Amino acid sequence: MTVVIDPGHNGNDGNHPEIVNRLVNIGTKMKACETTGTATASGYSEAAYNWDVALRTVRLLRSSGARVILTRQSNAGVGPCINERAAIGNRTHADAAVSIHADGGPTSGRGFHVILPLSTRGITDDIAGPSRRLGLVLRDAYKRGTDLPYATYLGDGKGLTIRDDLGGLNLSDVPKVFIETGNMNSPTDAALLESSGFRQRAANAIALGIGTFLRATRN
Ligand code: ZN
User: N or C: which end of the chain has fewer CB within 10 A?
Assistant: First the structure.
């Protein structure tokens, strides 16, 4: 089974607005190639956090026998653009693709949420069903594994949001979700995200959720 792990943003995005702000077609509209992501109050960048959790997740998935492809190879580069991130999953015929992020929500808000693609005819109607199944098992695994609350500041109150404006979802032809693994602007969440112990628990949970989805797909 093939898994694409997509660590959101990149460590050097902020120094290259000419690349990051270039518009790309996401199926429903034009959108910036990339965004630079958020950071905790103490300056731990989302790009670095996403990269760390992604590497931990990749290690676990590979040790369980999956073929795993990362959409970027370091945290010192720029991009790739959101359309290319989706294309990597498509080209490799991934059985599942997960974008790892942390959110920049209100300072008073806490928790995590999984973002599912809206079913849009001709764009995401082919992947909406399996993506939802992937998202549900990922949400459940992440809740159990990290004990973070469902996001208190958006979504359905059960850790799920649905969007039609993310290129990474709109352009995917394989089951794909985003996970916003915590709120970097919450002091409580930030303290967790900054701890390597939490990041390992987060990675364990993400790998477990993906594994559950893959086993259900294969059977
Ligand atoms: Zn992000």
Answer: C
Question: Mapping DSSP to helix (H, G, I), strand (E, B) and coil, where does residue 147 land?
Answer: coil
> How do residues 63-82 score in pLDDT, each as one tens digit?
999 999 999 999 999 999 99
Which residues are known catalytic residues?
A: 180
Nearest Cα neighbor of 24 from 176, 178, 170, 175 is 170
Tokens for 149, please give them: 């609350």
**Ligand 1 center to 168 CA (angstroms):** 11
Domain ranges in the chain are 2-218
- pTM beyond 0.70: the answer is yes
Judge contact between 174 and 213, C-beta under 8 A.
no
**CATH of region 2-218:** 3.40.630.40
Q: Is 37 within 8 Å of 184 (Cβ atoms)?
A: no
Cα–ligand 1 centroid distance for 103 (angstroms)? 6
* Cα-to-centroid distance, 213 and ligand 1 (Å): 23
- Distance CA(190)–CA(42), nearest Å, equals 9
